């Protein structure tokens, strides 16, 4: 046996000769960010060898200077003798992304208002089919000695007027003790369906005022959980964190590949349920003094892959031609089926997917955006991991998925991070000094950059001439913030480590910019094709809704200038935030909305870009700042004086 | 920490000073029989202290000679220092009772024939609502790329003609891989209900010929599992063992008391599911090469307490006035709800109980006995642990429960054992030598005595004058088989240890006889009251069915002579064996029979003996051999020449 000492975590572990260092760390629950899931392609899993020798190789990701200091890629390292390893505490290799973030009351209110607006505008009901009622059962005597279950049934029949009563074993298990805690005075929670009720909870005494539901948005990168009062329909609290699946890969493809490996599916399922959602729920319960048994309904939205992994369903055939998902519509589920930290009998509904790469997050988003009832032509762009686009109105809806990767959520960018505290969300660059002015979320010192920040940064680099329209740094600028490594790859320093007491400089490299240009090119070309496939162009679009985790301070102007969004009237654009969460919330509080959501899933058309004749050409043309055809971007043309 | 070395099991364990020795052994899974569940009342948990000192006391159960040898009661012993303990390997403290016993093809055939007879006599259907069908799905292409779940649904709609399809998560989890193992050729198992089907299983290829169900009888003492081919309806195999709950007490009252202690309910639930039923199923699967996923339906019968513990439902209120059971009717259940070792989606039905002490074993027994359709007056006596009685015909059925304890299954008798190999099942005693002639189950050397053997033995002791009508041994008989201990308690030696190379003599003591007389008195008086309550006497009875685990060789004549059964025409009696198992089997193979079973549960009347005015007098009168009023037993009167 070989001993590894992870000095940074004060943990020792024994493993076998030849074991992979990244795997060993994972088994020990030491988080090492590995977006490519150990394929030696992203270079993020850099750790420092303090003592001993390993079987490894220097890769392009490791600078000479780093190599000399002992930096190695964990995924590319076999353990051969006792060693000491330091996992750098910087962003990329910390659990920072898993920090639970609380709620912002103002934003919670926005969710409620947006949903309420949809409900009112479209005359939807504002109610669920879940009821909670306080009842007083007859106390048993020697002459009235029917069983506890029969006593409840008799009461329901005689006093509530339902013919049939149904419950799961967990309810039966509660019955004897709950009945006797308060002399057979109890509160029952149930779902009614015609003349039958299904009991979801029984509690001692009168607890009629406590009835909750949960809306969950499972993003590939981030997960948001939203606790809702099912009486007032108000958002009580919200909490979010990174999706703990990130350690198995940053995007859905890497996750799917991992899921097909031994125990992979189980690991991914546990990562999202036990390591992400359940802790988020627990944090809300503690803060708000909520009994989890009072959470009796859930609506969950995620892309097709996230939905499958959430249920622990094998999803590898999604990745192989002909790209078949295991399911699109939500199966009938109860929370206990997958071990969620809520009432065991709670109803669980998954927003329906449309296709392998247009999932429940999009149908929920479309529900909240109101496209299904709109007279205007709406272009809906979800800038999450990957990126999905819907175009339509009340008569038709078309959707497509772009292979944009996780760039808009900070993935695939060396100093990228999701839109949370410490993320640079706005950037302007001084034309003379080329010094950036940074605004961070939470107004703290910067620790990385999120999607909206990257857009600003690249736009400013383009305008100030730091990069050309191919995204390459000018070689002849003499400025300490612009530098090139031994492979002649340029980088711009957003923040020197000395400025903010960081472990490393925050930089954006030409590789990062290239990744980002591909991402924004995928979105723009996807939108173009969708509109063109109807024989139209962007002028037909009445409204553009931008959704997703890109950050609240998305600068529309800058997004247009770099060619992410079409160069049309600015007032047509609106950033609508986490529309998937708002849609889940809508379906949670309104039966009608849930019905609409099902309908959206059934009726939306899917366009497969990869087989669409002109898509590849469109994509290549869009991989430029803003586009090879500058005529499509008159604003940029005049700004750059071309 | 204190070390205990169980030399007999070659196991060492550490515990705390003051820990109870019986508890420590249980935690280590060392079985020490404790019918009274550690109340220092039965004296069965006798172990030998080989080394060290303990905090214990000599009780009446320990003979002087044993005390000198180091024998102590585990339940009455606190550990105070390192010790060595030997758990005697004799019957009372071995795992003998948990040995899995296989099937006897002849008896299996009897089950089938008895059930078939009921089905034919009463024109019941001979079918279930479970169907298995081989289907060939269209293979997916880029043009036909609907999800796996939708593909199945489409096929069912178009080809099988059902409107709705439903399945649990475990089926969805199987789908992607099973579909592709054999090019989308699969076999589905489903339950149909009107125009809707619920999928219970999907398998690759054509497996239409494999469809199984399981009937289970959960006795307080023994458990029998019966695997059934749902096509042919034949019994494929049967296996039985003791109920592993026995370590927590021999009768339902001790179990209920234990269930209300910390973790007690959980321990009892695990004992019956994980330690009893699942191993029995596993033994059958291995022997018959059965895939557990093909077991899709179960019918289970047990008394009210066994039914509750089987589901893990709190049952302590059954023991406290007004004696309320948690449930009587079977809740809707799937095998996975309680972790049974069968298909997760398998349907699980519990035979309904009638009252706190008349359970599903009795309704199932009554189903198989055909009382519900009989013109004749039938007296049904279940001689299991406790003992329940039903009297009735097609127009009415009345039931009662007797506090007979476990004596008929060998419990509460010092050398008692259940009716399995090595149990003495027949006894005759030579009038001159007083030497017994023994017949054992399996024709092996005797290791204990079962219910039918005890009846024979006591009857023979009465006839030969070894005991008087009070059950006391004659003091003046000079015979080596009759002896008295220091407390003047007499015993009769059935087998000397030297005769069969036993660790101890097999004896029956006056205490045993007294216990048995109380048990038989409870049954006889219960039956009397039931018949009398209708203003009748035993002459009105047309048939007496004896059911239960008392042993196949019950001697009716002897049972009458000792006053267990009424002294009426011998041809009216019939031993029908494990009627609870036959009833479960019937409900498993016939929809109509299951319906009848529900009806029996709803319609049977329950008579509470403890509040019945004349019961106590009747009981006391019956605690005699055969009865204080010998006029009720003319046969005995003439035999004893009184």
N-to-C span of chain A? 66 Å
> Which value, in Å, is the CA radius of gyration of chain A?
27 Å
Helices of chain A, by number, come to 17
Identify the quaternary structure here.
Answer: homodimer
Secondary-structure-derived class of chain A: alpha/beta
Largest interface: A-B, 45 and 45 residues
Strand residues, percent of chain A: 15-25%
Annotation, overall tally of beta strands of chain A: 29
Overview in brief:
Chain A has 642 residues and is an alpha/beta fold. Chain A contains 17 helices and 29 strands.
Kindly describe this structure:
Chains A, B: GO terms for molecular function: iron-sulfur cluster binding. The structure is a homodimer of 642-residue chains. The first copy, chain A, is an alpha/beta fold. Among the domains of chain A are: 2-94, Ubiquitin-like (UB roll) (Roll); 130-204, Ubiquitin-like (UB roll), CATH 3.10.20; 370-405 and 519-545 and 561-575 and 593-639, no CATH class. Chain A is 30% helix and 23% strand. The longest helix of chain A is centred in the middle third of the chain and has 25 residues, at 264-288. Chain A is globular. Chains A and B meet through helix 4 and helix 5 of A and helix 4 and helix 5 of B.
Secondary structure blueprint with pairings:
The structure is a homodimer of 642-residue chains.
Chain A: E1 2-6, E2 11-15, H1 21-27, E3 46-51, E4 54-55, H2 64-69, E5 71-73, E6 78-79, E7 83-86, H3 105-121, E8 130-136, H4 148-160, E9 164-167, H5 169-181, E10 185-193, E11 196-204, E12 212-218, E13 222-229, E14 235-242, H6 252-259, H7 264-288, E15 295-302, H8 304-311, E16 333-334, E17 347-350, H9 360-369, E18 378-382, E19 388-392, E20 397-401, E21 423-429, E22 436-440, E23 448-449, H10 451-463, E24 482-484, E25 490-495, H11 497-500, E26 506-509, H12 510-532, E27 543-547, H13 556-561, E28 573-577, H14 579-589, H15 591-603, E29 605-606, H16 615-622, H17 634-639
Helix pairs in contact in A: 3-14, 6-7, 9-14, 9-15, 12-16, 14-15
């Amino acid at each position: 046996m070989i001993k590894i000492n992870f000095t940074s975590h004060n943990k020792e572990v024994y493993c076998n000769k030849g074991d992979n260092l990244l795997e060993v760390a994972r088994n020990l629950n030491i988080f090492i960010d590995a977006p490519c899931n150990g394929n030696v392609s992203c270079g993020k899993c850099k750790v420092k060898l303090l003592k001993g020798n390993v079987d490894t190789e220097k890769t392009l990701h490791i600078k000479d200077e780093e190599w000399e200091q002992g930096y190695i890629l964990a995924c590319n390292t076999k353990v051969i003798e006792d060693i000491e390893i330091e996992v750098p505490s910087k962003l990329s290799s910390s659990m920072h992304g898993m920090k639970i973030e609380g709620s912002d009351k103002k934003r919670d209110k926005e969710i409620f208002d947006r949903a309420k607006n949809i409900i009112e505008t479209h005359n939807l009901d504002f109610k669920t089919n879940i009821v909670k009622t306080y009842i007083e059962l007859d106390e048993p005597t020697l002459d009235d000695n029917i069983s506890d279950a029969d006593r409840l049934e008799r009461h329901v029949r005689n006093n509530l007027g339902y013919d049939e009563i149904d419950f799961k074993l967990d309810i039966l298990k509660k019955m004897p003790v709950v009945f006797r805690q308060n002399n057979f005075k109890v509160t029952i929670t149930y779902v009614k369906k015609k003349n039958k009720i299904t009991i979801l909870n029984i509690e001692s005494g009168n607890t009629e005022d406590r009835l909750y539901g949960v809306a969950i948005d499972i993003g590939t990168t981030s997960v948001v959980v939203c606790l809702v009062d099912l009486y007032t329909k108000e958002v009580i609290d919200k909490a979010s964190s990174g999706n703990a699946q990130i350690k198995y890969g940053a995007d859905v493809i890497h996750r799917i590949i991992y899921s097909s490996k031994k125990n992979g599916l189980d690991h991914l399922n546990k990562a999202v349920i036990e390591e992400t959602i359940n802790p988020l729920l627990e944090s809300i319960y503690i803060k708000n003094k909520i009994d989890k048994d009072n959470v009796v309904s859930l609506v969950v939205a995620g892309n097709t892959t996230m939905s499958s992994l959430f249920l622990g369903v094998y999803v590898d055939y999604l990745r192989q031609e002909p790209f078949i998902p295991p399911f699109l519509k939500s199966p009938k589920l109860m929370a206990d089926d997958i071990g969620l930290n809520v009432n065991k009998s709670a109803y669980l509904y998954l927003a329906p997917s449309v296709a392998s790469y247009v999932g429940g997050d999009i149908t929920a988003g479309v529900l909240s955006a109101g496209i299904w009832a709109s007279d205007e032509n709406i272009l809906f762009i979800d800038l999450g991991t990957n990126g999905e686009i819907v175009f339509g109105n009340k008569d038709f809806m078309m959707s497509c998925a772009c292979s944009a990767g996780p760039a808009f959520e900070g993935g695939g960018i060396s100093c990228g991070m999701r839109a949370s505290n410490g993320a640079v969300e706005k950037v302007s660059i001084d034309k003379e000094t080329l010094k950036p002015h940074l605004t961070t979320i939470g107004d703290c010192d910067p620790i990385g950059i999120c999607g909206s920040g990257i857009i600003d940064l690249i736009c400013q680099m383009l305008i100030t001439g730091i990069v050309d329209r191919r995204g390459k740094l000018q070689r002849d600028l003499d400025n300490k913030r612009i530098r090139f490594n031994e492979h002649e790859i340029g980088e711009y320093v957003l923040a020197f480590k000395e400025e903010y007491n960081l472990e490393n400089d925050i930089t954006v490299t030409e590789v990062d910019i290239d990744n980002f240009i591909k991402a924004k090119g995928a979105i723009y070309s996807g939108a173009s094709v969708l509109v063109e496939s109807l024989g139209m162009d962007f002028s037909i679009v009445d409204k553009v809704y931008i959704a997703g985790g890109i950050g609240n301070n998305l600068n529309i102007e800058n997004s247009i200038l770099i060619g992410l969004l079409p160069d049309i009237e600015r007032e047509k654009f609106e950033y609508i935030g986490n529309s998937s969460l708002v849609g889940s919330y809508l379906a949670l509080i309104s039966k009608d909305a849930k019905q609409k959501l099902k309908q959206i899933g059934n009726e939306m058309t899917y366009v497969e870009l990869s087989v669409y004749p002109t898509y590849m050409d469109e994509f290549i043309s869009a991989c430029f700042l803003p586009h090879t055809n500058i005529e499509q971007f008159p604003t940029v043309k005049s700004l750059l004086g071309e």
